[in-house]
Design goal:
Elements: H1 2-20, H2 23-45, H3 50-63, H4 70-80, H5 89-96, H6 103-115, H7 119-127, H8 132-143, H9 145-160, H10 164-169, H11 178-199, H12 202-241
Helix pairs in contact: 2-3, 3-6, 7-8, 9-12, 11-12
């Protein structure tokens, strides 16, 4: 069953590649995957210390688009029965484990925050008898509330505005997020509007435009409410984390 699913997915991927790219482009992609990417990944795995090779590896994953790994992830989640999950497992579990949407950015953010903390605090905790776990839970983690807040808000906003992964993992109309349902609403109202234009139904056209604006406002309303509630602490977290341009 697993081999059949793998062959089916690979066949669809090959069909899509054949229909969208010419022979020269496919040759270059194959060469890149067989040689350059392999050598690049091996060079990062030679040094697993987080301060050197590990950090460079995290930054590298920030440059890799999610479309390049969506096929193996889809196959794995399909084997686990997570597709069309009512608990949104393909989105929630990777995010909590640090390899979800823009997960490398959050790892880099926490690394920058903790590297700026004074080492004397950790030494003082060790002198008082705290072990590594207790030092992290009772000292480091409470001091990183600003970074936790920034990562939480950014993760919610980015997942709320994401169209690609929810569209791949969830085919049910009832499981689609509100922003993903907007194009369907636009298409249905455009069909009705075309009929109304032919029949000169001005009131119906105005009503459809009001529905579109109301639906768009409902899509951004949760993000606005979240930002209004956490605005002060979010800006403090951005300043302490050293982020710019977001």
């Amino acid at each position: 069953m697993e081999n059949g699913l793998e062959q089916q997915v690979l066949a669809k991927a090959q069909k899509w590649l054949d229909g969208n790219y010419d022979a020269e482009t496919k040759k270059q992609v194959k060469y890149l995957m067989d040689n350059d990417m392999k050598e690049l990944v091996e060079s990062f795995y030679k040094d697993l210390e987080f301060g050197t090779g590990g950090l460079r590896g995290v930054i590298l994953t920030m440059l890799v688009p999610v479309q390049t790994v969506i096929i193996p992830q889809y196959m794995q989640f399909s084997n686990w029965g997570w597709l069309n999950s009512e608990y949104y497992l393909p989105l929630v579990v990777p995010s909590f484990l640090g390899f979800g949407l823009n997960g490398a950015f959050f790892i880099f953010l926490f690394r920058q925050f903790f590297s700026g903390m004074p080492y004397e605090m950790e030494e003082a905790a060790r002198v008082d008898g705290c072990g590594p776990i207790r030092t992290f839970l009772h000292i480091m983690l409470p001091m990183s509330q600003s970074s936790l807040l920034v990562c939480t808000v950014l993760s919610i906003v980015w997942h709320w505005n994401d169209y690609f992964e929810p569209g791949v993992y969830f085919n049910s109309v009832w499981l689609k997020m509100l922003p993903n349902s907007l194009p369907n609403l636009y298409a249905e109202l455009n069909k009705e509007q075309h009929t109304m234009i032919q029949t000169n139904d001005i009131e119906g056209i105005i009503f459809n435009e009001a529905m579109l604006m109301a639906a768009t406002f409902l899509c951004i309303l949760p993000i606005l409410i979240l930002y209004l509630i956490l605005q002060k602490r979010f800006m403090e977290g951005v300043e302490r984390s050293g982020l710019t341009g977001i």
